[in-house]
Amino acid sequence: MTTKIPSVAKLLDLTGRTAIVTGASGGIGSGIARRFGEAGATVVVHYHSNKAGADSVVDAIVGAGGKAKSVKADVSSAKDIATLMEAAGGADILVNNAGIQPVKMFNDLSEADWTEMMAANVAGPFLLVRAFVDALRHAGKGGSVVNIASIEGHNPAPGHGHYATSKAALLMFTKAAAMELGQHGIRVNSISPGLIHRDGIEEGWPEGVGRWKKAAALGRLGQPEDIADAALFLASDAARWITGVDLVVDGGVMARPTW
Predict the structure, then answer these.
(1) Strand, helix or coil at 66?
(2) 15 Rama sector, left if φ>0, alpha if ψ -120 to 50, beta otherwise
(3) Is the CB of residue 243 less than 8 Å from the CB of residue 182?
(4) Is the CB of residue 101 less than 8 Å from the CB of residue 164?
(5) How far apart are CA 216 and CA 193, in angstroms?
(6) Edge-to-edge strand ranges of the sheet holding 246-249
(7) Active-site amino acid positions
(8) To which H or E segment does residue 131 belong?
(9) Could you tell me which residues come within 8 angstroms of residue 119 by beta carbon, excluding any fewer than 6 positions away?
(10) What is the overall mean pLDDT for the chain?
(11) Rounded to the nearest 5 degrees, what angle is found at the Cα of 24, between the Cα atoms of 203 and 27?
(12) How confident is residue 256, by pLDDT bands cut at 50, 70 and 90?
């Protein structure tokens, strides 16, 4: 089978495509949603509780000439996910960004802590991918999934044992889904971000930020746009023969034994 190769000018063009970005009311998700809108996609901006944040992202995309709408859903609920998919109306890009990251040392973890983490960071993406794939196969078309994992899925940090475990599971889920869904023209990849800037992080965690900057080959924290551009690449035709991979976007921290 011969694959049509797009021109360089069209490689990152998402015009005519619809993307669901979960957890898009702020941070990394907001950056991805905005970038996809800039690339021409119709963006479904998912949120769980921060409606104002999601609406702000929608306003920014629409204000720049794009198309977007916000949809509320609990991504651990199959019923809510069905509503989200219906509202998306034929999406062919899914970015699983929604998740939680509470800090608690291993000896202090309760069964409820563990269950909550796995429900949000592992079961949620599974349910979303299953519903997304069902819709794509019913429509007879392919698509792309980008799971937002973490470098902690490769190397854990103290107090993040349950979080790191959930992200490691998401990495393996990415590979397993890619292996089985490729026959349907559906690509599944992941991104493992490093430490991303957010308002107040330098003041609230100066020691950690300092250690990170010393360890990072590029000497800085990441920006949401750094992850957004990686997601745009993986979702676009520029990555048409890439599936089942994890793209580490961390400024070079993982090039060292540890930070």
Answers:
(1) coil
(2) beta
(3) yes
(4) no
(5) 13
(6) 67-72, 42-47, 18-21, 93-96, 143-148, 186-193, 246-249
(7) 163
(8) helix 124-139
(9) 76
(10) 95
(11) 15
(12) confident
Percent of the chain with pLDDT over 70: 98
pTM for this entry: 0.96
Length of the chain: 259
Q: Which CATH class is domain 14-255?
A: alpha beta
Task: Give how far Cα 81 sits from Cα of 34, 77, 86, 200, Å.
Answer: 22, 6, 9, 33
For residue 133, give the amino acid letter.
V
Which position has the token pair 């793209």?
247
> Strand, coil or helix: what is 99?
coil
Nearest of 174, 168, 141 to residue 152 by alpha carbon? 168
Q: Contact 210/237 with Cβ under 8 angstroms?
A: no
Give the span between the Cα atoms of 100 and 167, in whole angstroms. 11
**φ and ψ at 219, to 5 degrees?**
70, 25
